[in-house]
Amino acid sequence: MKILTGSFEALTNQVTKREQQAASRPEVEAAVQDIIKNVREKGDVALKEYSAKFDKTQVDEFRVSDATIEAGYNACSEELLTALRLAKKNITSYHEQEVSRGFIDAKQPGVIRGQKLTPLAAAGLYVPGGTAAYPSTIMMAAIPAKIAGVKNIVMVTPPQPEGINPAVLAAAKLAGVDAVYQIGGAQAIAALAFGTESIPRVDKIMGPGNIFVATAKKQVFGQVAIDMIAGPSEIGVIADEKANARQLAADLLSQAEHDKFARPMLVTPSLDVAKAVSAEIERQLKTLPREEIARASVNNEGFIAITKDLDQAFDLMNLIAPEHLEVQVDEPITYLNRIQNAGSVFLGRTASEPLGDYVAGPNHILPTAGTARFFSPLGVEDFVKRIQFVQYTQPALEKVASAITTLARTEGLEAHARAIESRFEADAK
Amino acid sequence: MKILTGSFEALTNQVTKREQQAASRPEVEAAVQDIIKNVREKGDVALKEYSAKFDKTQVDEFRVSDATIEAGYNACSEELLTALRLAKKNITSYHEQEVSRGFIDAKQPGVIRGQKLTPLAAAGLYVPGGTAAYPSTIMMAAIPAKIAGVKNIVMVTPPQPEGINPAVLAAAKLAGVDAVYQIGGAQAIAALAFGTESIPRVDKIMGPGNIFVATAKKQVFGQVAIDMIAGPSEIGVIADEKANARQLAADLLSQAEHDKFARPMLVTPSLDVAKAVSAEIERQLKTLPREEIARASVNNEGFIAITKDLDQAFDLMNLIAPEHLEVQVDEPITYLNRIQNAGSVFLGRTASEPLGDYVAGPNHILPTAGTARFFSPLGVEDFVKRIQFVQYTQPALEKVASAITTLARTEGLEAHARAIESRFEADAK
C-alpha cells in the first residue's frame, strides 16, 4: 500500500480530496422516472411487467408466504442460527439504549410545552439479490425499527429463480420483519414510496442497492424518508509503534475485500509499522478468495500516512471522517475525546472491525465518504419523529401577546397579529 | 372556503392528494450546476461576479462588520428588542430539553459499548433578502445549533443596496450567530458547501430560499447536510361545535397570508361552525393588507371538511399530517394520544398558531406537505451526530469469535473472518 510522508498540510491535501461518488447518470435518471410513473399509475401490473423484464421471473404473488420463510429458516445450519441469535441479542441491547422519551414542561404558569415521540407507522427495507444479500444488514436495519415501535416493517428483495437466500429469510424472521415481498430494482422503491394493490406504502426506505435503486431512492425522497445513500466501505486505523502488523493488515483487508472502491487507510507515526503492514498486506492478499477486489482497493484507494506523532494522526483522521475507525494503541479509551468525526470506533488491539459488522451490537449502516462530519449511524432515532405541543391559558397568552404582535407586524404579517388579538376581543360567532 | 361533506373515504380522497411540489426545473438545475462549479473553482472571484450580476451590487467585503451588526441592533425599537429577547428566552428553555447525552454500557464482562454525541463543527443559515427576511426564523435556526454546541454558526443573506434589514441583524446578534456574510442565491449555498477564501465551509445548511437556493441545496446534499426543503405553510384546525368562528377564521388566515399556495384546513363535525367560519373568513379577508395572497390560498387550497364526529376528525388529520395543528376543543390534552402525524400542535382555544411562530419556544421550522409522517421539527438533534464505540478484551472476543467467522463466511467475506482469527494466532510482526 502506498506510504505517504510529508507535512501535515501535504498529507491533508493528499487524503481528503475524495468525495461522495455521484449516485446517478442522466440516462438512469430518465429510466427510473419512467419506472416510478408506471408503478404509480398501474400498480401491480407494472410491477409484474418489470419483474419479467429485469429479473426474468414471472411473479404471481409478491408476498413471500410464511411457509417459505419458515422453510428458509429451517434450511439454515444451527451454527448460523446461533450466530444470528447472538447478533440479535447484542444489537437489541445496544440500540435499546438509544430510546428517547420526549418531555413535558410545565415550569411557566399557565403554560404547558412538550414533545412527544412517535414511531413511523411503516418502514421498508431493500435487500439486494445474489451475493450482496447480507443477512447481517437485515438485522441492523430492522432491529432499531422494531425497538422504535414501527408496527409494519416490510422487506423487498428481487425475485430469483432459485428462490430467496435462506439466510436472508432467517434473518428477516429473527429481526422481526413483518412481511417479505419479492420485488426488486427501482420498481420496488416506487412500490414502497407510493403503495400498490399488494405492497403497502411506507414512511421510510432503507437499504443498499445498485444504481437504479439508489437513483429511485433519491427521486422519491421527500415523498418518503430515506436512509443515507452509502458509498464504498472505509476503514481508518490509527496505530502506535507497538501495533501488530499482521493484525492491522488483516483488518485493512477486511474492508478492502468489499469493493474495488473501498478505502483502507492507516495513519501512524511509525515508519517501521508502515513498512511491516505494507509487506503483510501483500503476503495476505495472495491467499484471499476476493484477492482481485481487495488488491484494486489497496492499490488504488488505500494509503498509509506517516504523521509526526499520535496526536497528529487523530487530527488527520478527523479530517477524513472515516466510516470505521480503529484505535490500535494502549489505553485507547483515553483518546475518545480526540475523535470528532467517525461512524463507528473500535478501541484497542482486540477490537477488529468485523466485530462491529456482526455481533458487538452497534450498527453497521454507517456514514461514508467523509459524511461522518454530519451524518450518524443508523439507529432508533431514524424511526421516530418528534411532535411538538403547547397549551396556554388566557392569562399566560396575555403576558406574551404584545411581543407576538410586535414581531408579526415587524415581519409584515398582519393576520398573525390579528389572530392573537382575536383572543382578547368581545366574544363573537 | 369550500365545505366538503361525504363518507370518510370520500373526504380522504379529496384532501390527501396534495404532494410536495417539485423543488426545481431542468433549466434551473443546469444554471445552478454551473454556479456551483464556478464557485468551487474560482471562489470569491466567482461570488463577486454573481453578486454584481444577480444582486446588482458590488461587494468588496463579504463579511458584515461587527460595527454594522451593532448599528442594526441599535436601530431597532426597544419594543422589538424586548420581543426578540422574550423569544430567545423561550426558544432556549424549550430546546434545552431536547439535549441527549449518549451512553456508556459496561454490562457485559470485558466489553465496553457506547455512543458519544458530538456537535457539528459549523452550521450555515440562509436568510432571504427583502420582505421574506424573517428575524424569527433566524432565532429558530440558530438557537438550537448554539445549544447543541456548534462552534461556528454563520449566516448568509443577499447584499442589498439599502443594507441588511436591522431586525435581521439584531436577531442574528441575539441568537448567537458568529458571522454574517452578504452573499445570496445558489452562489451562497455553493460557498457554504465548499468554502471560499472568505467564507468557511460548513457541515449543514439550513433556511428557506427561492427556487435557485432550494435547487442548490438539493445539489450539494451529501457533500453537506441540509435541513428539509419546506413547502408552503399549512394549518389544520380540529374544532368542536363550541368553537369560536371569529378566532378560527383569524387563525386560518394567519397561515393563508403567507403564500398563495398556503393551505388553511378546518375539520369539524359541526356544519354550523363550518358555515360560520366560512362567513367570518370572507368578512376578515376584506381588511387584510395581504388580502390577495390570503384569498388565493383560501379559494384554491383551503377547505372545511365535515366529519361524523371528533374522532373521525383526528383520523382525517392524521392522514393529512399538517405542519401546524390546532385542537380547538375542551380538555385538549386528553387528545394528545390521538395525534400521530403533525409538526407542531396547539392545544386549546387560546393557543392561536402565531403563538408558536414567535415566542412559545417550540420551533417554527417544520415539516410540510404531509412529511410530518416521517420528518420532525428542527431541533437540537439536527446539529449533533452520534459516534458509536466499542472495546473488547481478548477473552470477550474469544466468546463471540466463532459467531463472527460463521456470519462472515456465510456472507462470502473471508477476509472478515481472518481478521478476527488473526487475534488468536501466534503473535507476529
TrEMBL record, chains A, B:
Binding site for Zn(2+): Q255, H258, D357, H416
Cofactor requirement: Zn(2+)
InterPro entries from the UniProt entry: Ald_DH/histidinol_DH (IPR016161), Histidinol_DH_CS (IPR001692), Histidinol_DH_monofunct (IPR022695), Hstdl_DH (IPR012131)
Any Pfam family matching the protein: Histidinol_dh
Pathway recorded for this protein: Amino-acid biosynthesis; L-histidine biosynthesis; L-histidine from 5-phospho-alpha-D-ribose 1-diphosphate: step 9/9
Positions with a binding annotation for substrate: S233, Q255, H258, H324, D357, E411, H416
Cofactor remark: Binds 1 zinc ion per subunit.
GO biological process: L-histidine biosynthetic process
Superkingdom in the source lineage: Bacteria
Family: Belongs to the histidinol dehydrogenase family.
Protein name in the entry: Histidinol dehydrogenase
Source species of the chain: Lacticaseibacillus manihotivorans DSM 13343 = JCM 12514
